[in-house]
Amino acid sequence: MALTTRRIGSPVTAWRELDRLVDSVFAPTTYDRRTGSTVSNLPIDVYESDDDYYVHAVMPGADPAEIEVTALGDVVTIAGQAQRQAPEGAKVLWQEIPSIELRRSVQLRRRFDIDRTEAVYENGVLKLRIPKAADAKPRTIKIAAPGEAP
């Protein structure tokens, strides 16, 4: 077993390094032995209005052309990759940014219309507007009084 050591210059640098190490231990990532890549459960926010669901996924460094949104039943899955990109011909001095596979599935409470879904990627955030299916929206039923036609 080889130990890697780093020279820590000041107490502030030592605390920052400790903070980084603790964050890396508790980060929501897993290592996929089959592909040799790190998979991250990307953070999302999910909102609901009367007509739509909104899903916002933080995907910094992802190429919008490589992001894939799929649906199966009532589950929407977002997948993509954030690749580290060193300048051509440059020598690595320090490397903390991982190449990482981003993936997250979310189960929505009602059926939705994936064909009318709108997706925008800006400033590292994927924003989805997913319309609810027409038959999944609440409807009001008129109640007739005695002697009235329904």
Per-chain topology:
Layout: H1 11-26, E1 29-32, E2 37-41, E3 44-48, E4 52-58, E5 68-72, E6 75-82, E7 100-107, E8 118-122, E9 125-131
Account of the protein in words:
A hairpin with a 4-residue loop joins strand 1 (29-32) and strand 2 (37-41). The chain has one helix spanning 11-26, and strands spanning 29-32, 37-41, 44-48, 52-58, 68-72, 75-82, 100-107, 118-122, 125-131. It has one domain (11-136): Immunoglobulin-like. The mean pLDDT is 80. The strands form two sheets. Strands 1-2-7-6-5 form a five-stranded mixed beta sheet, with no helix packed on it. Strands 3-4-9-8 form a four-stranded antiparallel beta sheet, with no helix packed on it. The termini are far apart. The protein is 11% helix and 36% strand.
Distance between the termini: 80 Å
What's the mean pLDDT score? 80
General form:
elongated
Integer count of domains = 1
Which strands sit side by side, in order, in the main sheet?
1-2-7-6-5
Q: What is the number of helices? A: 1
* Order of helix and strand elements from N to C terminus: HEEEEEEEEE
C-alpha-based Rg, rounded: 23 Å
Tell me the total number of β-strands: 9
Please name the CATH topology.
Immunoglobulin-like
Percent range of helical residues: 10-25%
Query: Low-confidence parts lasting 5 or more residues at pLDDT below 50?
Result: none
Q: Per CATH, which architecture?
A: Sandwich
β content, as a range?
35-45%
